[in-house]
């Protein structure tokens, strides 16, 4: 009979095996928590994109910008005038606070009082924009909105999230859901202030949509238009005075923009410089967004050029043909465009007809009119140019069926397209399942080792 392995040696071997298995388990846990955040983020900071709007037929050539992505949107209609990588996921940094402000404006009493907590002031650290408050210090919601948007205070944004939702995670989930409601397709939030997180991202187009929603609140416009704010003394602090970070609002900055309403800046190491700015000229308001810009000064110059592009290269044309519209009736199109150059898409409803205006496949405006007015409208279009409208009266049921089929097709395509946020959760689930499987295998291995040890003991007996 072969001699057995001494008990002391068996114990040493078992302990070594246990230590190795423990180390492997720890590695698995680290892997499964880190990989979804680091390896699978849809944001590629080194990516470059072309100016899509330059490829739109008969569209004015746009200025180049240093930022990787950008968008210019007409605030009233939502029409996009400039697009560069506008649907690509990018890190937003502090322009995140525009969404935070929107949630607060929609759900909170601006006169209510908020008390700073330990969790809230955790983001008040060196290198982070903050007001360095004291635990127990109180402010009104409105004062906190001002400090968050003008001073860009990260600690204030976190405290507002805790006040409104109870936790940062719950507030971030609320932010993401609200973004989806606004039509955002490339946005997921992890915090209220925009501090670095590989799963906290948006796009230039989505930020324009979010800003458009926030601009509907007069108080938001009032706050971002301020060049400085004064917060009264509290029980723990003297009066606070803060100047805006937005150089395009400061006349002595060298980047002042005439007609500028205001905006929000952002910067982190992974996002680089980001900027949202709004301006009004001759009654029209533009929203500009630039993301991932290396040069913190050039981004302001680029933003001014983009807004000038939107204001100077387009103009309104009357598409009503002298008829009474329920709503709308103008198209914002490249200079020199005539009504005959604009195509019309009619979407009949029970009472009214929605008419969308397109210029070379780009949506440029709309009008809502009664069914009766639509018949007159079609006749007027045909009279001006017989090629614009069929000589026979359009069969509305057939047209509606076609449009409905197209809408259904678009909806199905959208549903089948997985967003980056959905991809993130899918990858997390896969990695968790993999972790469970690996842990199961480790447990079974440990059990096997113990069973083998018992068998060896029985043999010795």
Describe the structure.
- The protein has helices spanning 7-38, 97-107, 141-151, 154-165, 168-181, 204-214, 218-224, 298-312, 371-384, 396-416, 420-460, and strands at residues 69-74, 80-84, 113-115, 138-140, 228-231, 240-243, 260-268, 272-281, 284-293, 314-318, 327-334, 343-348, 352-359, 362-370.
- It has 461 residues and is an alpha+beta fold.
- The chain folds into three domains: 10-39 and 422-460; 52-312, 3-Layer(aba) Sandwich (Beta-lactamase); 315-409, no CATH class.
- A five-stranded antiparallel β-sheet has the order 2-1-9-8-7, with helices on both faces. Strands 10-11-14-13-12 form a five-stranded antiparallel β-sheet. Strands 3-4 form a two-stranded antiparallel sheet.
- Helix 2 (97-107) runs parallel beside helix 4 and helix 4 packs across helix 5.
How many strand elements? 14
Q: What level of helicity do the residues show?
A: 40-55%
User: Mean pLDDT, as a whole number?
Assistant: 85
Output the radius of gyration. Answer: 29 Å
| Form type | globular
Brief digest:
This protein has 461 residues and is α+β, with helices and mostly antiparallel strands. It is built from eleven helices and 14 strands.
